[in-house]
Amino acid sequence: MSKLQPLNRAWAAGVFDARVSIPTVGLLVQFQGTDEFLIKRFGDVIGVGKVWNIGKVGKTVRDVWRWETQSFRDSHKALLFVIPLLSAMKRKQATELIAKIERNEHWKKANPTGGILAKSSEPTAPSADGEGH
To answer: Are 81 and 49 in contact (CB under 8 A)?
Structure first.
């Protein structure tokens, strides 16, 4: 992750908790809105995924911006980055999505040693020096 300072991480977790919907179908994570600065900063702090302008949507006056993960790996990393700081409900949803990602055949092929859930009962945060990913 690009910005491991504790306050940036806590900020990103708060945005994630409030704005990101955990998918029940699919494994990629995203959120969108008209606040370009918020979306871009979130993408910078999370350090994975893509930020892009999707233009005007429906009756919006301002352009809509989206942050989204582009791969199972990015979804996995983003979730591990914020999960220790999420509310109980969102942490449960994130843990379930991590489990779905780690059960995916493409994930298993790319990660033959297994994922975080194979090594422990609950995902843990990377250390401040970036270890754990």
So the answer is: no
Q: Domain locations in the chain?
A: 6-119
How distant, in Å, are the alpha carbons of 12, 87, 98 from that of 7?
Answer: 9, 17, 24
User: Is pLDDT above 70 for 18?
Assistant: yes
Residue position matching structure tokens 């055949």? 105
Confidence check: pLDDT of 1 > 50: no
Predicted TM-score of the model (pTM): 0.81
Task: Please name every residue paired with 52 in a beta bridge, in sequence order, or none if there are none.
Answer: 66
Take residue 36 and report the two structure tokens written for it. Answer: 């370009």
Top-level class of domain 6-119? alpha beta
d(CA 37, CA 27): 26
**Cα 33 → chain centroid:** 16
